[in-house]
Design a protein that fits this description.
This protein has 676 residues and is α+β, with helices and mostly antiparallel strands. It folds into five domains: 2-104; 120-272, Beta-Lactamase, CATH 3.30.450; 295-393, 2-Layer Sandwich (Beta-Lactamase); 407-505, Helix Hairpins (Orthogonal Bundle); 507-669, Histidine kinase-like ATPase, C-terminal domain (Heat Shock Protein 90). The protein is built from 16 helices and 17 strands. The protein has a five-stranded antiparallel sheet, sandwiched between helices. Strands 7-6-10-9-8 form a five-stranded antiparallel sheet, sandwiched between helices. It has a five-stranded mixed sheet with strand order 12-14-15-17-16. α2 (53-119) packs antiparallel against α3 (123-136). Mean pLDDT is 77; it is low at 1-17, 176-184 and 624-628.
Length: 676
Amino acid sequence: MARSGITQQQAAEPSHREKIRPTVRQIVVTYIVCGLLWILFSDAILAILVQDPAMLVQISLYKGFAFVGLTALVLYLVTRRSFIAVEVGVSRLQAHKREIERFNRLYQAFSRINHEVLTAADKNQLFSRICQLLVEQGGFQMAWVGALNDDPCSLQPVAAFGEGVDAVIRDLANRSEVHTGSIGWPQVVDGAAPMICNDFSSSDNMRDWLELAEQHGLRSRAALALKERGEVVAVLSVYASEVDFFRDNEVSLLQEVVVDVSLALDRFVFAQEREQAELIAARELSFSQAMMDSMPGVFYFYDERGQFLRWNRNFETVSGYRGDEVAHMHPLDFFAAEEQDLLQQGIARALDTGEATVEAEFLSRDGRKTPYFFTGRGIDFDGARCLIGVGIDITERKRAEDALRELNDTLEHRVAERTGELAQAVERAEAADRIKSAFLATMSHELRTPLNSILGFSGIILQELAGPLNEEQNRQLKMVQASARHLLELINDVLDLSKIEAGQLEVQAEAFDLGESVERVAASIMPQADKKGLRLEVQAEPPLPAMVGDRRRVEQILLNLLNNAIKFTDSGEVSLVVEAIEDYFSPISQERCRAVCLRVRDTGIGIRKEDLSRLFLPFSQLDSGLTRQHDGTGLGLMICRRLVDLMGGEITARSEGATKGSEFSVVLPTTIQVPR
C-alpha cells in the first residue's frame, strides 16, 4: 500500500506540467491572432474613415498605444486564469499528497497490527498493542478499548494509549462516554455499524462532551465493535485532532483491523477451551489412573487380540514385570500352562456374553503362584471388542475355607455334645420355672391373706367400732394401714412381673365405658393429690370412643401413671388428658385403626434427658437420692409398658429436664386384639 501511494504522487507531477503547457500555447496563439487582426483591419478602417494624413499619423500612434493596452489586458486575463488553475492544482496536489501519506501511515499500522494479531499471547496484550500502534504509526491522537461489563449498559476501559489518555479515561469514567446509552453507543454494541463523528462541534450528541474534547485537542472519533464468536465483547475507540479525519479509506482499514482482531479473539477463546479440555482430559486420566492404582486387586484392560491397553500399578507389583514389559505380553502369559485353557474359555465367554468369572493362580515373574478371583466384562471400545476386569487375591479366603473344613470334621461331634448339655439345661430351667411358679402362687396366697386381714381389722378399728381412739392411736393405725397397702402393691407388682416374664399375663377384651374408668381412677387418686396440696385436672371431653379391651388393666395403667405423677410432684398440678385419634398405625397388628391417647402431665421434679432411656427397665430408680425420698420398687413403669404392648399400643415419656416436669403418653387401640 505504501508503494501504491508513492506511484500516485509521481503520476500527479506530469499531469501538472501538461496543464501548464496548453496555457503557454494559448497565450502565444491569442497574441498572434489579436495582432494580425489588428494590423489587417485597423489600418483599412482608418484609411476609410480618415483622409487627413497628419491626423492619420496621430491616430495610428494612438492605435499603437491601444493595441499595447488591449493585448496587455488580454494577456492579463489569460495568464490570471491560468495561474489560478495552477494554484488550485498545486493545492489539490498537496492535499492529495497528505492524504496518501496519512493512508500510508494507516496501512503501516494495519500491517503491524496484523503481526500482533498473529503473535499476541492474550487479548489484553493485543488490545494494548493495537492502541499503541494506532497512535504511534496510524497518526491518531488517542485510542482505547472498552470491554462490556456484566451490566450491558457500560464499558470498562482495559487498554489505552495516547497523550493525556489517562486524564481522558478518568474523565470518561464520570461522564456519559463509557455508558452505552449515550452518543450513539447502542449501534456499536449491537454490532450493526461503526459510529463515526467527524466534527464534535457540529454533533448534538457530543455537546456535553465538547469541552472535554477541546481540552485534549480532540476533533473527531470512530468507534467500532470487537466481536468474539459473533458477540460484541468490546469497543475500539480512536480519536483524531483533525476534523473530517475518518473518511471511507480510514474507516475501511479500521473495519479490517476489527475483523482481524475479532478473529484473534476467537483464536484466544479456542486456545483457552482447548487448554481447558486438555487439562480436563489430563485430570480425568490422572483420576482414572489413581482410581485404578487405589484398587486392592489387579486391574486389566485389553482388546480381543490380547493387547494390553491399561493396567494398574498393583498389576506390575504382583506380576513382577515392568510396565513396558506388560505392554508386550499376552494375558495368558501370567498363568501356568495347565490353567490357560480355563482362562481362555473365560475370556471368550466374557467377550461373547458380556461377563465371566474365573478362579486361577496368578503366575508372577519369579514363579510364585497366588490364588485370584478374576471378574471380566466384555465392552465395545474405540470400534473394537475389549475386556475389562479386576482380580482379587483370595489367599486368605482359601485359608479360611481350609480351616472351615477342618472345623466341620469335628463339628457334628461337638454339636451332639452341646445338644445334650442344652437339653439338660432346659430341663433344669423348666424345673426351676415350675418351682418358681409354685412358690409365687403359694406366696401370693400366704402374703395376701394376712395383709388383707391387717387392712380389714385396721379399717374396723379406725371406724371406732371397737371403741373410741385418741389422736395418737388414730395416727399410728393409719400408718399401719398405709404400710400394709404399700406392701400389698409391692406384692402385686412382683406377681404381675412374674406372670409377664412367664408369659402368663393375659388381657381381656370386653366393652367398657372409658369415661367411667377415668372418673373412677381420678376419684381414687384425688385424696392423695389433696393431701399434698396438688390440683388434679381431668380433661376428657365427650363423646369418648367406645372401648373394647381390658378395663382393669387400662385403669391399672392410669392409676400407676397418676400415682407416679403425684409421688414426684411437690407443688403445682397433675393433669390427665384423654383424646381420640381417628387414624393410628398399630405396631402390633400392623394396621391402621381408631385409638385413644391418655396423657398424664405433672409439674414435678422432671427427668434428665440421659435418664429417659432407663425409665421402663425393671427395678430401675433414676437416682439414689430419689430412692431415699420416694418409696417404690421401680416396677410400675415397666409393668405399664408390658401391659400397653400386650394391648397393641405404645407408651412414651417426655421431659425438658430436671425440675421441668414430665409427660407420659399412652396410645391404645379402641379395639384391643387379644392374642390367641
